[in-house]
Amino acid sequence: xxxxxxxxxxxxxxxxxxxxxxxxxxxxxxxxxxxxxxxxxxxxxxxxxxxxxxxxxxxxxxxxxxxxxxxxxxxxxxxxxxxxxxxxxxxxxxxxxxxxxxxxxxxxxxxxxxxxxxxxxxxxxxxxxxxxxxxxxxxxxxxxxxxxxxxxxxxxxxxxxxxxxxxxxxxxxxxxxxxxxxxxxxxxxxxxxxxxxxxxxxxxxxxxxxxxxxxxxxxxxxxxxxxxxxxxxx
Length: 234
Description:
By secondary structure, this protein is of the alpha/beta class. It has a single domain (about 10-230), classed as 3-Layer(aba) Sandwich (Carbamate kinase).
C-alpha cells in the first residue's frame, strides 16, 4: 500500500506505549503500532510520559533541568523498545539520540538522519532536543522541519483538537480542520507555543489524531480524514 505523502514524521506520546496499564511498556501496543508504522512512516519522535514526565517530576521538587534530563532518557528507552518491534516487522531502523550514548544509539546529526531516510530506513529520533525546558512536541516540529517532512502526525490518546477539554465537557466540539491563526485566536491547546510557532513559521501541516484506535495511523498515512488537520490556511 503506497502512502500519499513522501516523508512523514510521527510524534507519539509516551503514554500510548503503555496501553491500558497506564505506565511502562505494553508489548501488544508496541506490536500494533509497529504494524501500522510500516505503512509509510519515515521518522518518529517519541515522548517518555509512560516512564517519567519531566514537568511532573519538577513539580514534585526535582530540579527542572534534572527532571527534563530524566524525561529525555525515558524517550531513549521507548525508542529502543519501538525499534525492536519495528525490526520484527522487517523494517530497517536507526535510533538517533540528541544526547550522545554511542553504545545504544547514533548521535543525532541532521545530514545523517536525512541519509538514513534516503536509504529507506525508519529513523527514531530520541532524547528530545537534547536540552531541558523543551517539550517533545517542540522536538517533533524541529526534527520535522530539519528532515523536510511533508507533514507531522501527532498521535495522542484523544480524537483531535476540541473547543474545550472533552473529558471535562463531553459537549466539546472537535474540529476537522483549523488554521494556525484560528487555533491561536481560540487559544486551543494543540501543542506548546514554542512548537506551534515554529510549525506555523515553517508552514508545517499537522494532523492530531487518536493513535490508540486501531487503523487510525494507517488511515492518516493514506491521507484519509482522521482527527484534526492544522494548516497554515484552511
